[in-house]
Specification:
The chain contains eight helices and seven strands; from the N terminus they run βαβαβαβαβαβααβα. By secondary structure, the protein is α/β, with parallel strands linked by helices. α4 packs parallel to α5. The longest helix is centred in the middle third of the chain and has 29 residues. It starts with 11 loop residues before the first strand and ends with a helix. It binds NADPH dihydro-nicotinamide-adenine-dinucleotide phosphate (NDP). The site of NADPH dihydro-nicotinamide-adenine-dinucleotide phosphate (NDP) has 28 residues, from α1 and β2. Keywords: Oxidoreductase.
Length: 261
């Protein structure tokens, strides 16, 4: 029996919102396994910083400015990538936002904004890449979900609603397009050290740990926050031929916290 391999040689990956943080780490890991990397971000300044960071890591990434909530802009992005680089084999829907506001203090506009970026955008970008994946005969879509795809928590009503919806969109893409050799899976990161979560690790005025930081470390069997590198292996697996019969699942990469709380 031949072992299916983890190489991404010859594959083209689009990772959204990947100038830094989780998307950047995943893209770097995929590049090390042979993939050509395309990424977008919402501001030119971020794209420029991203291109420089990839260069420093020895990667020639193709960076584009694109708001993933804008369907016309996303369609134009995918057409440009297909023309300049080639048909996308791997899509990672990574761009996301969070607003930590108690539900009754949140405006409907704020709620909609989170749903727009965290749920509507993965729908828009997936819809833009699937037709070419069907023609090419294969495709991998990885949706970056969250533990909040499973849980509710104070102040994250919109985020939990969006990420819960993203879990179900993942299952639906699997059901609808699995017959075309398209696998759509999700990764549910636990609490990861990124700029998004930096405020939750800030020391208190008396030098003690932030109460949330204490909570995470005490409730995670691994007894630590995750790092962006922790997500790379699972993402490469889900992007590679090794996962060709894995479809419609969410792989939680959380140090065990979901099993414990
Ligand atoms: P961020 O969530 O801060 O950002 C990801 C990138 O997406 C940023 O560069 C951001 O730009 C960009 N972005 C935001 N809105 C748009 C848009 N409309 N169009 C294009 N790009 C956009 O980084 P993280 O690395 O923390 O998170 C990555 C993903 O992982 C997100 O989906 C997040 O929800 C998820 N996640 C993160 C966890 C964590 O602990 N950090 C835990 C669980 C899930 P800008 O900087 O301008 O906002």
């Amino acid at each position: 029996m031949e072992l299916k391999n983890f190489s991404l040689e010859g594959k083209i990956a689009l990772v959204t919102g990947a100038s830094y943080g989780i998307g950047f780490a995943i893209a770097c890991g995929m590049a090390k396994c042979g993939a050509t990397i395309c990424f977008n971000d919402i501001k030119q300044e971020l794209v420029d910083k991203g291109i420089a960071a990839y260069k420093e890591a020895g990667i020639e990434a193709h960076g584009y400015v694109c708001d993933v909530t804008d369907e016309d802009a996303v369609n134009a992005l995918v057409a440009t990538i297909e023309k300049e680089v080639g048909v996308i084999d791997i899509l990672v829907n990574n761009a996301g936002i969070i607003k930590r506001i108690p539900m009754c203090e949140m405006t409907a506009a704020q709620f909609r904004q989170v749903i727009d970026v965290d749920l509507n955008a993965p729908f828009i970008v997936s819809k833009a890449v699937i037709p070419s994946m069907i023609k090419k005969g294969h495709g991998k879509i990885i949706n970056i979900c969250s533990m909040m795809s499973e849980l509710g928590r104070e102040t994250v009503s919109a985020y939990a609603a969006a990420k819960g919806g993203l879990k179900m969109l993942t299952k639906n893409i699997c059901s609808e397009y699995g017959e075309y050799n398209i696998q759509c899976n999700g990764i549910g990161p636990g609490y990861i050290e990124t700029p998004q979560t930096a405020p939750l690790r800030e020391r208190q005025p008396d030098g003690s740990r932030h109460p949330f930081d204490q909570f995470i470390v005490s409730k995670t069997p691994a007894a630590r926050w995750g790092t962006t590198e922790d997500l790379v292996g699972p993402a490469v697996f889900l992007a590679s031929d090794a996962s060709d019969f894995v479809n419609g699942h969410i792989l939680y990469v959380d140090g065990g916290i979901l099993a414990y709380i």
